[in-house]
Task: structure prediction
Amino acid sequence: MRLTDRVLPVVTVLSVGALLVGLIWGFFFTPDDYKQGSTVKIIYLHVPSALMAINAWLMMFVASLIWLIRRHHVSALAARAAAPIGVTMTLIALFTGAIWGQPMWGTYWAWDPRLTSFMILFVFYLGYIALWAAIEDQDTAADLTSVLCLVGSIFALLSRYAVNFWNQGLHQGASLSVDSAQPVDNVFRYPLFVSMAGFMFLFVALVLLRTRTEIRSRRMAALIARERSA
Amino acid sequence: MPDLGQYSGPVLSAYAVSTVLIVVVTALSLWRAAKVKKQLAKIEKRHKDNG
Result:
């Protein structure tokens, strides 16, 4: 708690700053794309949110593994804390993708490998949150949600790499890659990087805040149980 | 305000909905954090008072 007392304000400031700079830069100060027109401005929301939707699940995967192997309570609570943020990011990615898809592809939705695996990931998020809420015993809930998280990780990876496995889908390849041949011009890429940093810091800030809340909530439950047994 | 042309509807709705979702998840997280912190402080005080 003492460490997060110091880290949380810094991450919050970084998050707000990077989000404001990235989104204002992208929205107001970048040109239209020659093919996509002004819909290219949706990239500053869609790509960072999709990235964080997958990374949030991967963070939950690591935390779940730590819980299953080491029985470290904070890791289970951190995974629980990350899920509502992950589902919000998934929803933003799905919505902005659909909004962009209608004028560009002529449809809001297609049963494309990446879109479908993303939709399944969204359902896994909802199931994960519901499972935590449905089980009273917290250790049992942590066990079962961890197993669910391990299974769902297949779809998190599929959502990331589906365009590489199957090339018959509508969704284009990665907008950013480590290869030298970048599909996105620098004029769009730099504000996109800032926006991605903003989404990442927002995720970290909210996970820290929510994990602290979960820890306090667990302590409160323990004190109430002690009062009842006394 | 940039000229968004024929795509102003999709672009503005994407920004509006994303902003609302981010604000809602942040507000809910802050609200629950404040509520739990207050409740815990109350219970800890009660414990201390009761010895």
